[in-house]
Amino acid sequence: MAVRVKICGITRSLDAHLAVRAGAHSLGFVFYEPSPRYVEPAVAAEIISGLSPFITSTALFVDADPDVVRDIILLTKVDLLQFHGNESPEYCEQFGRPYIKALRMKPDMDLIQQVGCYSSARGILLDAYKPGVPGGTGESFEWSRIPVSMRSSIVLAGGLSAENVAQAIEQVAPYAVDVSGGVEASAGLKDANKIKCFFEEVARANNN
């Protein structure tokens, strides 16, 4: 099955259209204010309203106040929630919306146990661990740490770019890959050529 692609950190309509034209299945919008990829909810709502019907919009939060999450859901009409902090399963479930739980690959983490805690999640995203940084580190992790039985169902993130995404797909064969910094000109602003090259490498890996 072909690996799907999510482009995260969308902050402007131009980048959304570039990603969709290149073949993105999902676009991610960061609602975590300390992030350089933070987007104002009203701006995200306008971008999302112009998306094609089969493009999934994903809202990324980090330990957000539940009322903030509810307000953004109402304003943006986003399809999917993504929680990138220390949110409990009960926290994630309270919104009655499909969600993805991001897990940062800490050295001592029991991945199977952690994934089991979030059995209600639509999917699990695995990202690199860097102390104090909830995501978007631009770093990768040892993909061999992912149990083989789990690989086909996870979303793989962390330091992906045109230089390594084909290798990641060939080694892990994940359900999807998630990229942000690897296709940027600068934080929050995408680069058309990097997006093009990224999708070319995904296609090459999918066709192998």
TrEMBL record:
Keywords, ordered alphabetically: Amino-acid biosynthesis, Aromatic amino acid biosynthesis, Isomerase, Tryptophan biosynthesis
E.C. designation(s): 5.3.1.24
Catalytic activity line of the entry: N-(5-phospho-beta-D-ribosyl)anthranilate = 1-(2-carboxyphenylamino)-1-deoxy-D-ribulose 5-phosphate
Enzyme class: isomerase
SUPFAM superfamilies recorded: Ribulose-phoshate binding barrel (SSF51366)
NCBIfam families, A to Z: PRK01222.1-4
Similarity field: Belongs to the TrpF family.
Name of the protein described by the UniProt record: N-(5'-phosphoribosyl)anthranilate isomerase
Organism field: Neptunomonas qingdaonensis
